[in-house]
Amino acid sequence: MNDQIELYGANTGNSLRAAIALEESGIAYTARRLDLYAKEHHGPAFLALNPAGKVPTLIDHGTTPALIINQSNAIIQYADAKAPGRLAPAQPGPERIRVIDRYFFFVTDVIAPSHAAFFLHQAGQDKAAAIIDLRVIEQLTYAESFLTDEFMAGAQFSMADISAFTIVTAFRDRLEWKELAQLSRWFDTVEARPAVQRGLNVFKQT
Ligand SMILES: N[C@@H](CCC(=O)N[C@@H](CS)C(=O)NCC(=O)O)C(=O)O
User: Ligand 1: which of 55, 68, 73 to mutate, most ligand atoms within 8 Å of CB?
Assistant: First the structure.
């Protein structure tokens, strides 16, 4: 626990990715769980931090003024900068670029469309949502080809694994696992990591 860094969040993919990134980076922080059903993220105290009323939000009180980060993927970049080498190779070069490349594949080609499908479902546009969900499943199936080594972007765990893990979890019941031997092996490996488990549990209701 460390009150200098606070992570506001809930049990959602975006919040969990941020929590896993902090845990894997070994950055001490205090998790502040918000009850989205009780609309705590729309209360004045939280809106003062994040006017968009969305989670996660990280505050680092170690700077003046305090640093506030309102994007899960920016929190992952913050963790990478604060703990070089834990979420990507610290040195510039092909290995680091491969991590960034695959990280963005999951962020932009998989997670972003899956959010769009979620909003279409909420709007009752189930047919349109299903088309996008199918695209997401195709992209996750394609990610099988990334796994020529232990992790998504090589032999080391990286931010690419973080971006992949929560979205694979969300689609785990819709993937053809018998055709995805590498993805299956990878999923079990990542899920078993103690830091991943800590991140997954941080916003669970007790
Ligand atoms: N691009 C933002 C998206 C944040 C976001 O959409 N958070 C959702 C939970 S996953 C949220 O706060 N939803 C509650 C709401 O919109 O009222 C990020 O990656 O952090």
Answer: 55
Cα 54 to middle of ligand 1, angstroms: 4
Residues 115 and 189 in one domain: yes
Q: Is 13 in the pocket of ligand 1 (CB under 6 A)?
A: yes
Is the pLDDT at 1 greater than 80? The verdict is: no
DSSP string over 29-94: -EEEE--TTTTGGGSHHHHHH-TT--S-EEEETTSSSPEEE--HHHHHHHHHHHSTTSSS-SS-SH
Asked if 82 and 125 sit in the same domain, the reply is no
pLDDT 10s digits, 19-30: 999 999 999 999
153 DSSP assignment: T
Find out whether the beta carbon of 50 lies less than 6 Å from any atom of ligand 1: no
CB within 8 A of 3, min separation 6: which ones? 30, 61
Q: Note whether 115 and 186 are same-domain residues.
A: yes
Ligand 1 atom at minimal distance to the Cα of residue 70: 20
Which domain covers residue 27, as residue numbers?
5-87+196-201
**Residue keyed to tokens 């999951």:** 106
The total domain count for the chain is 2
Residue of the CA atom closest to atom 1 of ligand 1: 71
pTM score over 0.90? yes
Q: Quick check: CB of 55 below 6 Å from ligand 1? A: yes
